[in-house]
């Protein structure tokens, strides 16, 4: 069937009937004896002056066929630059795109935006993404204390990273002047800014009062309000999240093999949001 509504995983009592305990145990213990893969780190420059790096793994395959694993963080602009580089190296290869959480949202957006590259992909897999942040945020704060803990933890980790790079992220001038047409690629920019956030208009956050609010952020919404939406030129967090969402592009992916996987007890993505992927299930999209 196209919607596996009966396939609901229920953790055994061994894990306290909680998938979170099972996941935490595997994170702490399950990876102790796993060998570290050895890959090649590739670097390339993008039109906006940024440098994108990605790791490429080429393990041996029993069929003697070429097999590649590609790990690439970033946004759709980064992914496009990396894939264009891969096509020049391996023009006849077929790929499977797999994304988790925010990476899944980026993966679906990438497939929706780059229609001309779909023929190079066998399929795509989206795991545990929230689809539409604006819909999820109305449910997210009231779901459970665990969801609030996740949000606070993610925010504190991101703020810690930002503090280490404060001079670059909160300086007085943008990192790259994308308003200069010579340094701007219209395919990966939005309102004069790089869609991945590399070229930041930090003047929108300049000032001790705004910066103080940023460092006091306790949630993802507050972090995006006091920093992300300002440097990317959005009027509100809602506008930012609507632009980031892959929902509007899912209409264009109905002729591409796409597997959507979500967990019913996900503390970040409430089950009420599952109505979005259910709506789009059909001949090519499977939930």
Automatic annotation (TrEMBL):
User: Which InterPro entries does its entry note?
Assistant: AB_hydrolase_4_sf (IPR050960), AB_hydrolase_fold (IPR029058), ABHD4 (IPR012020)
Query: By its UniProt entry, which SUPFAM superfamilies does this protein fall under?
Result: alpha/beta-Hydrolases
Q: For this chain's UniProt record, which GO biological process terms are given? A: acylglycerol catabolic process; medium-chain fatty acid biosynthetic process; medium-chain fatty acid catabolic process; sperm capacitation; steroid hormone receptor signaling pathway
Which Gene Ontology cellular-component terms appear in the entry?
sperm flagellum; sperm plasma membrane
Specify the superkingdom.
Answer: Eukaryota
Q: Which PANTHER family match?
A: ABHYDROLASE DOMAIN-CONTAINING PROTEIN, MONOACYLGLYCEROL LIPASE ABHD2
Family assignment? Belongs to the AB hydrolase superfamily. AB hydrolase 4 family.
The entry's protein name is: Abhydrolase domain-containing protein 2
